[in-house]
Amino acid sequence: MALFRKFALTLVIGIIAAMMLFPIVVTFTNSLMTEGEIDHNYNLIGQMINTAAGEKDGFVNLKLFPDWLTFHQYAEVLVHKPVFLQMFWNSVLMVTPIIAGQVLVASLAAYAFAKLRFWGRDKLFVIYLMTMIMPFQVTLVPNYIIVEKLGLMNTSSAIILPGIFSAFGVFMLRQFMLHIPNSYIEAAKMDGAGHLRIFYKIIVPLIQPGIAALIVLLFVDNWNMIEQPLIFIEDSFKQPLSLYLSRINEGARGVAFAASVLYMAPMVLLFLYAESYFIEGIQLSGIKG
Amino acid sequence: MGDKRYRGKILKLLRQDWTVAVLFLAPSLIGFAIFYLIPFVMGFFYSFQDSTVDGSFVGFDNYNELYASGSFRKAATNTFLFTGISVPLIVVLSLLFAILLNQKLFIRNWLQTAFVLPLVVPVASIVMMWQILFDWNGTVNVWMQSMHIERIDWMKSDWSMGVLVIVYTWKNIGYNIILFLAGLQSIPKDYYETADIEGAGRFHKLIHITLVYLTPTMFFVVLMSIINSFKVFRETYLIAGDYPHDRIYILQHYMNNMFLSLDIQKLTAAATLMVGCILISVTVMLSIERRFRKFMD
């Protein structure tokens, strides 16, 4: 009976889980079709069919499995569309400095918020939190003006610098640091260690899981960035991959699936590899410090 | 004598912490001020001026103009409507799935992964799928046709809001499930055992143990869901562009379009209003939570 219950529950959850995976799986299988097949299946998207004029009513034909298994789309994207690789590289060149910079800057600031006493500490932290929950558009104009004043317009720095200083890393690493007992720090002080020494000899080794979690979450968030480059980067050859895909969907639908798979692959692989860090990071951000 | 030395030590320590804190904070604080804090304050001031360059103070003129604008009211209504529908829905669904995932299951970890995976899939790479599913000639309509239901023009009718709710739920439900699972696993097992001995039913246990001890998690989940509901703009923008169907024209579209048409006054006023609304709802949530905590103690 208990076994039956377990089986039935698994089945129910399994069906819902399959629905969750459906768009991802279909994107993958469709990336193995020929361009012709894609075109044939989906050419009716966005078309109005005028039945009054005698046109035959039609539908798209969503297919799970390709008629012909082929890597043609991938070859097309990788070899014949140099702009794809260029923009993939642009994304890498934006996300990497953001992650490296934020881990460094945020871990220092998080130490001050978690382990040092100073006037206005908690108020300042609330201000950090406030900016974290606001939509990007809220500070669109002043941001634009500042980026322009700094002469960063149309450069990747316009994306990277705000990315480095976003409050998220400070918030998350502070949560991790609050779990480190103060007695460790007191003991180190007794031994005559200064704060910098305490920071990199005690704190940094202890929050390594937190840093790993932050890296995963930052990667996911910034790889996905759309609004900022849309505003700050005009030249299409400087833009990240997210914008390439939003354009390719309209035109070359035949290779969009392969491009999508290549775009999501780093995220999905990183997630499957570091799922426990990812989950720990989210759970810890939910625990009140 | 000893007292004096003691005090001197404390003062020294205080001074030390202060200076150290400044050094540790400085890199973050400088960047944070330039790219977040100052823009925030600037936006607030712009909303009361008639121009961003040498503007003069005009009181609430921008707000009055904003209120008179039909497209702003449309956008504000839609934003409230979307958050009002999608947040309760996603909280209930994610709680349900978390409770189910917390049972004894086969391949439990795999199932959990399936729910969390959409969280890491970039929006732009899945937009094609949404278009194929919800187009007038799309797959959902094919399914409906085969069940002899009249097809719906999903993206060009009020149903577009429904599509947005689906897209939002699909993407964010994993986040809430992770939080709820952590909450569920932190409830001590012996509470349930005691209830079993006292002969409590399954429903009784759900209401009086699970939900009560899950309430702090619930607050955070609701808060995060609201915040994430503002991020649905990415999806809307990629699926439907600058000017989507009236029903899914939300505040971010409005602000974006005001930006493109250089109507900075309306933009900053709208932004300030939005910030105000978010702050009020967060404050209300937090004060309810505090009251709940006192009540629990």
UniProtKB/TrEMBL annotation, chain A:
Q: What is this protein called?
A: Multiple sugar transport system permease protein
What single Pfam family name could you report for this chain, choosing any that match?
A: BPD_transp_1
Q: Where in the cell is it found?
A: Cell membrane
User: Taxonomic lineage per UniProt?
Assistant: Bacteria, Bacillati, Bacillota, Bacilli, Bacillales
Organism of provenance: Paenibacillus macquariensis
Q: What are the entry keywords?
A: Cell membrane, Membrane, Sugar transport, Transmembrane, Transmembrane helix, Transport
Q: How does it sit in the membrane?
A: Multi-pass membrane protein
Q: Which InterPro entries match?
A: MetI-like, MetI-like_sf
CDD domains on file: TM_PBP2 (cd06261)
Family, as annotated: Belongs to the binding-protein-dependent transport system permease family.
* Domain ABC transmembrane type-1 stretches: 88-274
| Membrane-spanning ranges | 7-26, 88-113, 125-146, 158-177, 198-220, 254-274
Question: Keyword GTP-binding: yes or no?
Answer: no
From TrEMBL, chain B:
User: What PROSITE patterns does this protein's entry cite?
Assistant: ABC_TM1
Stated membrane topology is:
Multi-pass membrane protein
Q: Which Pfam families match?
A: BPD_transp_1
Presence of keyword Transmembrane helix: yes
Q: Which Gene3D superfamilies match?
A: MetI-like (1.10.3720.10)
Query: Where in the numbering of this chain does the ABC transmembrane type-1 domain appear?
Result: 76-286
> Where are the membrane-spanning stretches?
20-46, 80-101, 113-134, 163-185, 206-227, 267-288
CDD domains per UniProt: TM_PBP2
UniProt keywords (A-Z) are: Cell membrane, Membrane, Transmembrane, Transmembrane helix, Transport
Give the InterPro entries listed for this entry. ABC_transporter_permease (IPR051393), MetI-like (IPR000515), MetI-like_sf (IPR035906)
Where does it reside? Answer: Cell membrane
Q: What is its main location?
A: membrane
Provide the family line: Belongs to the binding-protein-dependent transport system permease family.
**Protein's UniProt name:** Carbohydrate ABC transporter membrane protein 1, CUT1 family
Instruction: Supply the source organism for this entry.
Output: Paenibacillus macquariensis
